[in-house]
Design brief:
This protein is an alpha/beta fold and 250 residues long. It has one domain (5-234): 3-Layer(aba) Sandwich (Rossmann fold). The protein is 46% helix and 13% strand. The protein is built from nine helices and six strands, in the order E-H-E-H-E-H-E-H-E-H-H-E-H-H-H. The protein has a six-stranded parallel β-sheet with strand order 3-2-1-4-5-6, with helices on both faces. Helix 1 packs across helix 9 and helix 3 (64-77) runs parallel beside helix 4 (101-129). It starts with a strand and ends in a 21-residue tail after the last helix.
């Protein structure tokens, strides 16, 4: 994989940062993208200290001009992007009747439109190479639902639908498209918002006990699945929803 370049969004911390480090360990150069470029420094430094190549990027993923500018830097410094991990997103917790239009629109804009924009901007590189891997990080909330998260679940379900549609469309071009909908992952901003801030009605202990594998998920769990889906070995796998959730959703 030494000639591959990957772009990971939401990569300053948590799942995104773990995916960056794992893909870099496979010999890929990494575009580390987040809303705040300065927050990407720690991820970039960890990759460079391990002998890899990485580039910090700042962009609002739903702003096409900002995404195009960031990609121009990646292509100039690292090369064409043939692995994309759409990980960036936000969470939100409100009873359905209290979700206003602005909150709904912001959730869809970042969690779904952002993935659409970044994928569209990256895809020409994959088509030119006749090889590509697109991995969308959705949420188990899209499959099972979640109280007070109707807007979040709807946006993440849209990612699953987009994954399947693109798998049909892009398979003949040598590009696979798959989706990982995690259960809650410890040590991430979303997890802290859900449980530390007490906004999610389901307690952490109850969530852990609800799955056959009774521990919290870790960013490295998601990164391991991402690494396989980004590899040559997964070339016959596309349009799949790969549940990395400790068996919580079977």
């Amino acid at each position: 994989m030494s000639e591959k370049v990957a772009l990971v969004t939401g990569a300053a911390a948590g799942i995104g940062a773990s995916c960056c480090r794992r893909l870099a360990s496979m010999g890929m150069a990494i575009g580390v993208l987040d809303l705040d470029e300065e927050r990407c420094a720690a991820t970039v430094t960890s990759i460079e200290n391990a002998g890899g190549r990485a580039l910090a990027l700042g962009a609002d993923i739903a702003d096409r001009a900002q995404v195009a500018s960031a990609l121009a830097k990646v292509r100039d410094r690292l090369g064409a992007v043939t692995v994309l991990v759409n990980n960036a997103g936000i969470a939100g917790f409100s009873p359905f009747l209290e979700i206003d239009d602005a909150a709904w629109d912001r959730m869809i804009r970042i969690n779904l439109t952002g993935a659409f924009v970044v994928t569209q901007e990256v895809l020409p590189d994959m088509v030119d190479a006749e090889w590509g891997r697109i991995i969308n990080i959705s949420s188990m909330a899209a499959q099972a639902g979640a109280p007070h998260m109707a807007h979040y679940a709807a946006a993440k379900a849209g990612m699953i639908g987009m994954t399947k549609a693109l798998a049909h469309e892009l398979g003949p071009k040598g590009v696979t498209v798959n989706c990982i909908p995690p259960r809650f992952i410890t040590g991430t901003i979303m997890s802290d918002q859900s449980f530390v801030a007490g906004k999610q009605p389901l307690l952490r202990e109850a969530e852990i006990a609800a799955g056959p594998i009774q521990r919290a998920g870790r960013p490295e769990d998601i990164a391991g699945a991402v690494a396989w889906l980004a590899s040559e070995e997964s070339g016959f796998v596309t349009g799949q929803v790969v549940g990395v959730n400790g068996g919580r959703y079977i």
